[in-house]
Design goal:
Its cofactor is Mg(2+); Mn(2+). One of its GO terms (molecular function) is metal ion binding. Pfam families: HCS_D2 (PF22617), HMGL-like (PF00682). It is a single chain. The chain is 41% helix and 11% strand. Helix 6 links the parallel strand 5 (164-170) and strand 6 (194-199). The protein is built from 16 helices and ten strands. Helix 8 crosses helix 9 (266-276), helix 13 (358-367) crosses helix 14 (375-389) and helix 15 packs antiparallel against helix 16. It has 430 residues and is of the alpha/beta class. The protein binds zinc ion. The site of zinc ion has 7 residues, from loops.
Length: 430
């Protein structure tokens, strides 16, 4: 029998049960996994500023910072104050807004940059240096001994100022593993708050991420932050694998904007984590604010929100095929892993097309309160919709015209004749 729509209209035996343990969680909890205990470092105002179209005025940065704070992200990361005078002033301005999120800035592993960062009043500094053979040969040209000495000097200085400090390598997945582990171990020993792994070129896959983070987890005691570029489409999956392996912090940006095609998108990560531990995500983040911040950022960088975007894409909660629509109307969980209402979104069942089903049409009849139409009427009208939609899809308005005409003609038993009059969807124009 069909599952009930809610638990009040049936007895216990028939009730659709929400699984007590989420089927999306591992059967045996892994104590190292942080799927249910992670933090977000939101980098739209740093990584996002590296997106091709991005130019944020101070006012726009403040607006974005406040909107992200309203979602409840744990940290906001800002462009280095060494980048320009305005960047320096913007760090100061945003640090003084009194937001709940901690404010970080992202600098090179260099004493001059660290001093400037401290001057701006941020809560912490994210320090980065390249360790891959490519970067060592073609970018800064320094060896590992030099990098380690420099890292210790800069970290010690920032800690002595009472600030939080993260040390990250760049292009970590193409760095020598022994080099990586030894530098992370060295900075962990002097009390760095977090070490960072960065897939700067977007080459890593989830299995490689899991292995590297799990190895690092056994080498350092501090927190582990991860930063994933999306060149090959793995940025969300890599973030998830990193948390499973014991990472604690994930970098995101709104709509994923950043260098090249960007990084892990905030909305996509929240969707992924909601599927894994809904309660943790709902308690910590205000998911209804995602759409607002995406609209602010999309318009600021002159792009539109993609049609298939996580959560907010225009078809993210649209159900079309008749068999899907029927099940969705009975119990949305049948074809929905995300509840649209938790994200301030609405479900939409599309009915004016050749794949439609009579259950969806019957549901529309109920919405329009055409109470004296029966299931047989719904089936008859559905057959007509399919016939007309073979010419072209009908809008919801077209369908409503058909339903209302049929309904009023039924009062005089003329409804079947009315249906026969319609041979082209254009006759249903409003
Ligand atoms: Zn990046």
């Amino acid at each position: 029998m069909a599952p009930p729509r809610d638990s009040t209209d049936t007895n216990d035996a028939d009730r659709v049960r929400e699984p007590i343990v989420s089927p999306y969680m591992p059967k045996y909890p892994d104590p190292m996994s942080n799927i249910s205990n992670f933090k977000i470092i939101e980098s739209t105002l740093r990584e996002g500023e590296q997106f091709a179209n991005a130019f944020f005025s101070t006012e726009k940065k403040v607006e974005i910072a406040k909107a992200l704070d309203a979602i409840g992200v744990d940290y906001l990361e800002l462009t280095s104050p060494a980048a320009s005078e305005q960047s320096f002033n913007d760090c100061k301005t945003i640090s003084n807004l009194g937001l709940k999120a901690k404010i970080l800035t992202h600098t090179r592993c260099h004493m001059d940059d660290a001093r400037l960062a401290i001057e701006t009043g941020v809560d912490g500094v994210d320090v980065v240096i390249g360790t891959s053979s490519y970067l060592r040969e073609f970018s800064h040209g320094k060896d590992m001994d030099y990098i380690t000495t420099k890292a210790i000097e800069v970290i010690t200085y920032i800690k002595d100022q009472g600030k939080e400090v993260r040390f990250s390598t760049e292009d970590s997945f193409r760095s020598d593993l022994v080099d990586l582990l030894s530098i992370y171990k060295a900075v962990d020993k002097i009390g760095v708050h977090r070490v960072g792994i960065a897939d700067t070129v977007g080459c890593a896959n989830p299995r490689q991420v899991y292995e590297l983070v799990r190895t690092l987890r056994s080498v350092v005691n501090c927190d582990i932050e991860c930063h994933f570029h999306n060149d090959t489409g793995c940025a969300i999956a890599n973030a998830y694998a990193a948390l499973e392996a014991g990472a604690t912090h994930i970098d995101t940006s709104v709509l994923g904007i950043g260098e090249r095609n960007g990084i892990t998108p905030l909305g996509g990560l929240l969707a992924r984590m909601y599927a894994a531990d809904k309660q943790y995500v709902l308690d910590k983040y205000d998911l209804k604010q995602i759409r607002d911040v995406e609209n602010i950022v999309a318009s600021a960088v002159d792009v539109t929100v993609p049609f298939n975007n996580y959560i907010t894409g225009y078809c993210a909660f649209t159900h079309k095929a008749g068999i899907h629509a029927k099940a969705i109307l009975n119990n949305p969980s049948t074809y929905e892993i995300l509840k649209p209402e938790d994200f301030g979104m609405s479900r939409y069942v599309s009915i004016g097309h050749r794949l439609t089903g009579w259950n969806a049409v019957k549901n529309r009849i109920e919405q329009l309160q055409l109470v004296d139409l029966t299931e047989d009427d719904a089936k008859t009208i559905t057959a007509k919709i399919k016939e007309l939609a073979d010419i072209r899809p009908l809008s919801l308005e077209n369908v409503d015209v058909l339903l209302r005409q049929y309904h009023s003609a039924k009062q005089t038993s003329n409804h079947l004749n009315v249906l026969q009059q319609y041979v082209n969807p254009d006759q249903l124009a409003v």
